[in-house]
Batch of 2 targets.
Target 1
Amino acid sequence: MTKSKLSALPNITTPNTQVVFNPEICVGCNRCVEVCQVDVYIPNPVKGKPPIILHPDECWYCGCCVIDCPCPGAINFNWPLQQRGSWKDKVTGKVYRDNVAFP
Ligand code: SF4
Ligand code: SF4
C-alpha cells in the first residue's frame, strides 16, 4: 500500500485571526478542532502543539472551541474591533473596549 502525502495551506485571503493560542498552556488535545463546525482548524502535525488555523475567515465566533477547551487560557478570542464590547463611563467620560480605556 502506498502512502499518500497531504498538503494544507492556510487561507491567506484575510488577515483575520479569530483566536490566539497560548502554546505554553495548550496541550494539543485537538478538542477545539473537533468541535468547530466549519473546520477552521486542522491538527498540528507536531504532537502536543496548538492546532493550525487553516480558514480564519470561516469563523463565525460561536465560541465552541474556546468553551470546550479543557485548559483555561490555552485559546482566547481575538475579537474584531467592531465586535468588541464598548461603553462609556458616565463619570469620567472614558470609552472602554474589553476593559481597556481608549484615550
Ligand atoms: S486550545 Fe485547548 S482544546 Fe485546543 S488543542 Fe489546545 S488544549 Fe486542546
Ligand atoms: S468560534 Fe466557532 S466557528 Fe470560530 S473557530 Fe471556534 S468553533 Fe470554529
Note: Helices lie at 31-35, 64-68.
Target 2
Amino acid sequence: MAEAFQHLNFQRGGLAILDVCCGPATWLCETSLEYNNSQFTGVDMSDVWPKDIRPVNLQFRRANILQGIPYPDQSFDFIQIRFVVLAFTSDEWRKVLNELLRILKPGGCLQCIDLDMRVTLQDASQSRQLIENFEQFYAMQGLDVAAGAKLDMRLSDLDLRIVQSEYREVPLGWGGPIGTASLNLFMGKINGLAPWYKRAVDMSDDAFRQLQDDTRALLVRSKAYMGLHAFLALKALE
Ligand SMILES: C[S@@+](CC[C@H](N)C(=O)[O-])C[C@H]1O[C@@H](n2cnc3c(N)ncnc32)[C@H](O)[C@@H]1O
C-alpha cells in the first residue's frame, strides 16, 4: 500500500519482506523482481509456489503458522498476510496476528488485505436465504465471514497504528473480469465446504450442484457484491 513507502525505503533496499500464507506466490514473484535489492520470503503450509524458476532474492519455507511462525523475534521490515479470511477461526486469528507482531521489527509495516464475505444483494427483492445458509454453516465451523472487516479492530488491539485503510466493493459475477474472477473465488470457497455441508444436511451430489447453480444465478441476477478491506499498520519504534 502506498503509505508503506513513507515508512520504509524500498528503493534503497536491504529490507526483509515476508508474505505469510503466500499460496502460489504471485505477489512475491512480482515484487521481488521489482525490488531486487531486498530479500523476500514466502511461508505457506502447502508448497504451491514456483519450484524450478524463481527470482534469486526470493525463498520459501513450508510451515503451518498455527504452530508458530519459524523465525526469531523482529526478523522482518514488512509483512503481508492476504486472502486468508476462511483459514482461521476467531481465536486462531488472534494467535496469528500476535505471531506476526512478534516477528515484525520495530518501525516495520504489516499489510493485511482480506475479504468481508458478507454478501449484499443490490436487488433487495431477492431472498438471501441461500446465502444465509452458507454464512450460518461457516459460523458453525467457527469461521467468521466478516473477518476482513474486523482486522482494523484486531490490529488496534495489538497496539499497531493503522496508517492507511482502504475499502472496495467487489462485484460477484457482473461488471467485467474482476466480477467474473471474484464470483469464481466465492463459488470455490462454497465448493470447499461441500464435503461437510452435504454430510451435515444429508444432501446428494446432484442436489449440492443444483444449490451451487442457484446461488451463482442469484448473485449475478441481483448484482451482488462483497467487501474488500486493506490495512497498513505500523509497529512502534522501541
Ligand atoms: C486463498 S490462498 C491466498 C494466497 C495468497 N496470499 C494470495 O494472496 O494469493 C490461502 C493460503 O493460505 C494457506 N494457509 C491456510 N492456513 C494456513 C496455515 N495454518 N499455515 C500456513 N498456510 C496456511 C493456504 O495453504 C493457501 O495457500
Note: The mean pLDDT is 96.
